[in-house]
Amino acid sequence: MEVTSDVQTRKLPFVYRFITNWLVTDPNIIDKYELYDKENQPKKNYQASRHQNVPYIYLLGGRWRTIRRKPINVMSIIILIVPMVLFLVFDAKWTWRHVSPSLVILFVYFWLLSMSFFITAAVADPGIVPRNIHLPSKITHSQIAQAPEEYFYTVTLPYHYGNDGVTVKYCSTCHIWRPPRTSHCSVCNCCIINHDHHCVFLNNCVGWRTYKYFLWFLLTSVTAAGLLIVISFVEVFHYRLVDNSSVHSFHQSIREHPVSLLLAIYGCLSVVYPLLLLVFHLFLTSNNITTREYLNYVHKHPSSDYINVYDSHSVIRNLYINWWGRASSVTLVKQSDTYQPGDIRFERVQPLSSFNA
Amino acid sequence: MNDPNSKYECQNDTSKESSVKPPLQFFNPHEFMVTNENPILPKENEAKLVINHFPNIYEPRDSLAYATTRIIRIPRIYSTVRDSDFIPQFSTYVPGSEPAAISNEDITVFEAKGRYDDAEFGYTSLTPLVPGLISETEFETIVKTINQHLYDSLNPYNGHLFIENVLEFLTGGVYSKVINKYLFTGYSKRRLQDLEAYIEHLNTEVFKGRDGLKIINPRLSGFLSVC
User: Fold this and answer.
1) Which of A63, A228, A336, B91 has the greatest number of CB atoms lying within 10 Å of its CB?
2) Helices A72-86 & A258-286 angle (0-180, nearest 10)
3) Partners of residue A164 in chain B, C-beta under 8 Å
């Protein structure tokens, strides 16, 4: 069997190793080509992930992550950057001198905030739970020989108030007893704490650690888009607002400031979706319910009496908890840590099945 | 919970609090039962074994520690504080004495009745941990301290957390990435570091004489259970 000996005996050049082992790492490809032999064991956790169908790609040495799907987040970033570049090149100076420097500063500030929150929400760990923690018995040949029946029931445990409890379920893929509100994302193939939804535009899940950045992104991007609309319209209609303008008609104004009209239209179009999302999430957070719970229980069956036990029955409190009260806390599975050989959290164990041969 | 009597009560009653559901009881969902196929004493294979301790997954599978130690999982409890969906709290019930645990009035300590998966188990939810290896008060103190650290760290109504979140919003996330990492640690992380220091203290000093007894840092287990 001399198939992989070529790859193993040749030392890979530094640039290649830098790019594939630090800059952009796809552990599934590493697994496929068996780039690690006995001496070259994976040094960090992110290089060692061996799970099936987990489409994570790690960037910058495991510090950032993204999903191996269509790169819609790159398109979103371009949509964010384009108006800023156009504004800075064409309109910023004019607005600074003729209208007010504060508008420019405010717009740039909110744009920077929204960009930063977008990047954080898109590359941060959303709250992934370590796998294989609650294995019921010893593993033989990468699987559990006999799965206990109890692990397939949904358990209801008492909650802090009221008689309605919280439901706790065992995830057969991740082999853990999930806390309430923790859900298994089908795209990322991981369990995520307080899972809200999988955002295609971020190419990442929105969960415990990324929810507040997501909300802040929505807020700041709507503000920035609003400011852009105001600035652009003021620029286009400036001739009507002042007496001693050299411009006397709308057509002339557009010829003088063509990019402003473009930016005004761009702002109006691009504010629609984030504004809708913002309103939707304001509604959700004021009831302390996640998107997933809302779509699965409230929206699908409007007549059923779904009781949201997490609602603290005070809009202010619910809003506070979600917008200002969450700690980012710690990553539970630190991918940039050194890999300990034999760490079961990165081993592949077959999902628990109830059909036992 | 699916009691047919309470379902019909719902329909006739007009008040909102009409559904008379029996109060839910807490138990450890990690336990399960198997038939006693390898009994310790030959005639004792009628009742089912309660599996309440598990292989030690924190050691590599070919090590001695894996073969000789087991893990007891203290589950999370959701009825003690509000917002327990994101503030992990662990049950202070002695394993085996939860309200809905499998118990027997005659059996008050762990008694091995059968073998399964290379380890010994009994007929009730009691484990060899308490009072075998730790006393009840010690167990409660440990879990209560861990719970307190976690609560301090993640409680959203904490003034520190609010100020840090506002700062983070105003600086666009730079606060937590740059200043927190390189200048001083954020409040939430400091409390979690306190927790890790406490566990370290327990493992090295308090459990010194007791061979093989160790508490695994909850962060390793994803705050899912204390082992």
Assistant:
1) A228
2) 130
3) 21
Mean pLDDT in residue range B204-208:
75
Contact at CB, B85 and A170, closer than 8 angstroms: no
pLDDT of B58-97, one tens digit each?
Answer: 777 777 777 777 788 888 888 888 877 888 888 888 887 7
Dist CA A320 CA A324 (whole Å): 5
The reported pLDDT for the residue numbered A295 is: 86
Number of domains in chain B: 1
Pair (A105, A168) in one structural domain? no
Residue B223: pLDDT band (50, 70, 90) is low
In a domain, A335, yes or no: no
Residue A54 domain boundaries: 17-68
Q: With a CB-CB cutoff of 8 Å, which residues 142-201 of chain B face chain A?
A: 153-154, 156-157, 161-162, 164-166, 168-169, 172-174, 176, 186-189, 192
pLDDT-derived band at B12 (thresholds 50, 70, 90) equals very low
Least Cα distance to B146 among B205, B219, B42 occurs for: B219
What is the predicted pLDDT for the residue at A8? 46
- Could you say which of A171, A190, A191, A199 is catalytic? A199
